[in-house]
Design brief:
The protein has a single domain, classed as Alpha/Beta hydrolase fold, catalytic domain (Rossmann fold, 3-Layer(aba) Sandwich). Helices cover 30% and strands 22% of the residues. The radius of gyration is 16 Å and the shape is globular.
């Protein structure tokens, strides 16, 4: 793994050295109270050989690691925090940060709160995202974000494919909203094993 601090001060972790990075990018987002090192260690190994992984450190300090937002409540997210986190990612992948706009695909992989961020990025700039993997995650229920939704996947052939993994059995109330939103706004594939990640990412590399 290859850590770097960007000119904006954002800390990131690459899966490959600069000379070997490819045109297929997978952005990897850690859970609340975790670190980019942890998520990179666990999930860079699932990336296709043709892809380059980039894990980004969240902006809020937590007891252990960092968090993207100060709450994990899917119904009461702080909207300015959510948008700020989204812009933190967009700033990181801006051409001024990275020196290139030649990426032919950008896929997202998020764990827990990182999956909430990934679905937010999909809502804010759907044209940027080729596909998304969410692992034990949730979707933020917010009226301002809802205004960005595409009105239903059944009306949009451009809806992004999403692999949604539920590994830890949970009765979290966010699960029903996440399922309903994903069904309405994406091409949803559900799974219970991380073995589905590599084939999904490989299939959706363009």
């Amino acid at each position: 793994m290859y850590p770097e601090t960007l000119s904006t001060g954002h800390r990131v972790m690459w899966s490959l050295p600069e000379a070997l990075r490819t045109e297929h990018l997978v952005l990897v987002f850690h859970d609340a109270g975790s670190t980019m090192e942890t998520v990179a260690e666990h999930y860079f190994g699932y990336l296709p050989e043709t892809a380059t992984g980039l894990a980004i450190q969240a902006g809020f300090d937590a007891t252990f690691g960092n968090s993207w937002f100060t709450t994990t409540d899917h119904e009461h997210a702080n909207f300015p925090e959510v948008i700020s986190a989204a812009h933190r990612v967009f700033d990181t992948i801006d051409e001024d940060e990275y020196g290139t706009t030649s990426y032919t695909s950008i896929q997202l992989l998020g764990v827990g709160q990182g999956a909430a961020l990934a679905t937010t990025l999909l809502r804010v700039r759907p044209e940027v995202v080729n596909s998304l993997v969410g692992i034990d995650g949730y979707v933020i229920d917010n009226a301002m974000l809802a205004a960005l939704d595409n009105g239903g996947a059944e009306t949009s052939s451009q809806a992004a494919p999403v692999l949604w993994l539920t590994i830890e059995d949970s009765n979290d109330p966010s699960a029903e909203f996440a399922h309903d939103w994903l069904t309405a706004n994406t091409r949803l594939i559900e799974a219970e094993s991380t073995s589905a990640i590599t084939p999904f990412l490989t299939q959706n590399v363009s």
